[in-house]
Design goal:
- The chain is an alpha+beta fold.
- It has a domain of about 260 residues: Penicillin V Acylase, Chain A (4-Layer Sandwich).
- It has 14 helices and 14 strands.
- It has an eight-stranded mixed sheet with strand order 1-4-5-6-7-8-9-10. It has a six-stranded antiparallel sheet with strand order 11-2-3-12-13-14.
Length: about 375
């Protein structure tokens, strides 16, 4: 079972608590990414730290507290700030290297399958979730981070130790799940990084504010942000590096569902979608998920728990298993799986591949039950 880390207070203090409680896992994150960055970006750790430092000022301009949180994490884990900053910009480092070198035989990467289900009335809950597929070292770094900040709503996120946020939900009823995307514009130009934006979405008290968070500054990388709210609202937002004009939104389909994997689907997307080159399994996972929902109740949590355990296309199915023929830095797996109920404020979490571990229920009605504001 992944450890739970609960923190509170101001930005520097809650970061310090996070770093102290998850110190061994934060240090493992840094150690593992030194190997990953060398393999994918061809950079040693000193170079990674220098490149990561270029993001400090864009993050500070976007939200100084996020820099302070990272400084606190570093202090708590007895690391340099630049080490923690580097793992928080790991997407920008890895995928920028891949976009720059798309003609080279760089290794592929496996990523995530995400959904939001919005029933037509209040008789059934809004469900949001995903499989998080990533490097196998993340089994040693994942944590459930529970935050009671002094400057926003409480939130919970399942995340790699040392990173600010990944998938999660907050006391205002806002949830976010996500998929990595890559275009020919992902060149590592400093802006607001992916994982900082995920953290900022969890500060939002309304779905409109969550969307505005993605709009308000220059983003550094491509991604899909699936934002949902307990008031039966959901929006998938495909983003490329840039500003407001580089966001493309998708509402729930005729079934009341948003499904997404790791390639662009919006008709207005005009950039070269490097995602398909890097993650060709994405096309098949989306096909499988779409067909699954045609045959099962789209508003039943059991539907998604079964889908997220599905092995069609094994080992690169919705439930991903390591490729036995891949070398260690290229070993990918479903690390965890989450299904959140935004009415009951519960998280169903599989600590590992859901086909093997099953799901446990974490009741956050007490922790997240209060309304923000």
């Amino acid at each position: 079972m992944f450890p739970h880390v609960r923190v509170s207070g101001g930005a520097r203090e809650r970061g310090r608590q996070y770093g102290e409680q998850a110190a061994s896992r934060v240090r493992r994150s840094v150690e593992a990414y030194a190997v990953v960055f060398e393999h994918y970006a061809r950079w040693d750790w000193d170079r990674v730290r220098v490149e990561a430092a270029r993001y400090t000022e864009p993050i500070r301009a976007f939200g100084a507290k996020y820099v302070e949180e990272m400084r606190g994490i570093a202090e708590g884990a007895d690391l340099a700030f630049e080490d923690v900053l580097a793992i928080n910009v790991r997407t920008e480092v890895m995928y920028a290297a891949k976009a720059r070198n798309a003609a080279m035989a760089l290794p592929r990467t496996l990523e995530c399958t995400a959904f939001a289900a919005v029933p037509p009335d209040d008789s059934r809950p809004v469900l949001v979730g995903q499989n998080w597929d990533w490097k196998t070292h993340a089994f040693e770094t994942a944590v459930v981070l529970e935050v009671d900040p002094d400057d926003g709503p409480r939130f919970v996120t399942a995340v790699e130790a040392g990173l600010l946020a990944k998938t999660g939900f907050n006391a205002a009823g806002v949830a976010v799940v996500t998929n990595a995307l890559v275009t020919d514009r992902d060149l590592g130009v400093p802006g607001v990084p992916y994982h900082v934006l995920l953290r900022a979405v969890l500060d939002a008290t309304t779905p409109a504010q969550a969307l505005a968070t993605l709009q308000r500054d220059t983003r550094s990388s491509s991604a899909h942000y699936l934002i949902a709210h307990r008031d039966h609202l959901a929006l998938g937002v495909e983003a490329t590096p840039g500003g407001f004009a580089d966001l493309h939104a998708t509402h729930p389909d005729h079934r009341g569902v948003v499904l997404h994997t790791n390639h662009f689907t919006h008709e207005r997307m005009s950039r070269v979608d490097v995602s398909v080159w890097l993650m060709p399994d994405s096309l098949f996972r989306l096909q499988r998920a779409d067909g699954w929902l045609d045959q099962h109740d789209p508003f039943d949590a059991a539907t998604y728990e079964a889908l997220l355990s599905d092995h069609a296309g094994h080992p690169t199915g919705v439930c991903c298993h390591p490729d036995p023929y891949a070398i260690a830095p290229e070993q990918d797996s479903t690390v965890l799986s989450v299904v959140m109920d935004l009415d009951a404020m519960t998280m169903r979490l599989a600590d590992g591949r859901p086909c093997e571990t099953g799901y446990r229920t974490i009741d956050y009605a007490g922790f997240l039950g209060r309304r923000a504001g």
